Amino acid sequence: MFPTTIAGSLPKPSWLAEPEKLWPQWRVAGADLAAAKLDATLLAVKLQEDAGIDIVTDGEQSRQHFVHGFLEFVDGIDFTNKVEMGIRNDRYKAMVPTVTGALKLKGRVHGPEARFARAHTTRKLKITMPGPMTIIDTIADRHYGDRVQMAFAFADLLNAEALALEAEGVDVIQFDEPAFNVYMKEASTWGIEALHRAIAGLKCTTAVHICYGYGIKANIDWKTALGIEWRQYEDIFPALAASRLTEVSVECIHSKVPPHLLSLLKGKDIQIGVIDVASDTIETPEDIAATIETVLKHVPRERIIAGTNCGMAPMRRDIAIAKLDAIGRGAALARQRFS
Question: pLDDT by residue (tens digit) across 111-141?
Fold first, then answer.
C-alpha cells in the first residue's frame, strides 16, 4: 500500500555538473563524462533505495535537461544556432535548438543508464522522457510548419525508445507533460493522442506526469497568479481517465488544487506529490501522511502512489536527499495509520 517513487530527477553531484541549476554545465567531458554519468546514476539509485523508495529512477543523471537530454539524440535538430523562445505560453524565456529537417533517432537515447540502473537494482525501475507536447513547446520549428505534425513525429521517436527500454527490463515509462497544464484544450484534442502514439505496443506501466513546474522563480510567480484554486487539472482529467495510460502523476502537497478533482481520474493509478519541490523545508512523516489522508477521501487506497510534485534537479542536493528520506518515512507512517 502507498508505494513510493519520485517524479524523475534528482540533483547531480557537484563533481558531475554545476549545482542548483536547471540547465547545468558538465564538469567533465568525453569518456570521463560518460563514466561519471553512470557513477552518478548508481549513486542516485542507491540513495533512493536507502530512503525506502519502491519504484526507483535513474535520477536523470545523464541528461543536462529533461527535454534536451532526449533531443540531443535526434537528427534534424540544430543545436549550434539556438534561438530565444517563450516557454509554457511565455512564462519564461529559454535558448532552444531548432528543428531544421525530418526527425530521426541517431540511435538509443537512454539505453546506457537504463541498462546500468537495471543491473544494479532489484526494485521496479522507472525511466522518464519528455512528452510530445512539452517537447514542441521547448524547441523552435523551421521545418514542419505545424505543431501537431511535429508533435506526432516526436511521438514516433519516443515510442521507439520506449519499446527498447521495456525490452531491457524497465517497469514504468513516464512521459512528462507540464505543458498539459498550460494548453488544456490542445491536451484533450491532440495531446493525449500523441501520447497514445508514444505508448503504442507497450505492455509495461505507462504514466504521464503533469504538474505546475520546477521550483524556479518563473513557476512560483505563475502559481501565485493562479488565484485561490488551481483548476487546470479539471479540464484534462476526464480525457486522461478515458486514455490508455496506466498512471497519472500530479502535484498535491502545498498546492491549491481542489483535492476532489482527483476523483475525475477514476480507474487510474495516481502518483500524488507529497513532497514540495518549491520549498527547502523538509516535510515530516506527519506532513506526508496528512497529504495521503486527504487524497484517500477521493481515491481508492490501492490506486495511490506517493511521489514528488515535480523533479528535484535544481534543488540543493542535501535537501533533496532529506526529502527522499521523508517520502519513505511518511509512506511507512501512512501504511501504519491507514491500513
Answer: 999 999 999 999 999 999 999 999 999 999 9
The full DSSP string for 275-325 is E-TT--SPPPHHHHHHHHHHHHTTS-GGGEEEEESS--TTS-HHHHHHHHH
DSSP state of 189: I
Between the two ends of the chain, the Cα-to-Cα distance in Å is: 8
Identify whether the C-beta of residue 207 lies closer than 8 Å to the C-beta of residue 124.
no
The residue with cell 521550483 is 215
Q: How many CA atoms lie within 13 A of 47 on its CB side?
A: 27
Which pTM value belongs to this model? 0.95
Residue range 30-338 forms a domain whose CATH class is alpha beta
Rounded CA separation 282/276 (Å) = 9
At residue 105, what is the residue type? L
Grid coordinates belonging to 100: 531544421
* C-beta neighbour count of 323 within 10 angstroms: 25
Q: What is the rounded CA–CA span in Å between residue 320 and residue 323?
A: 5
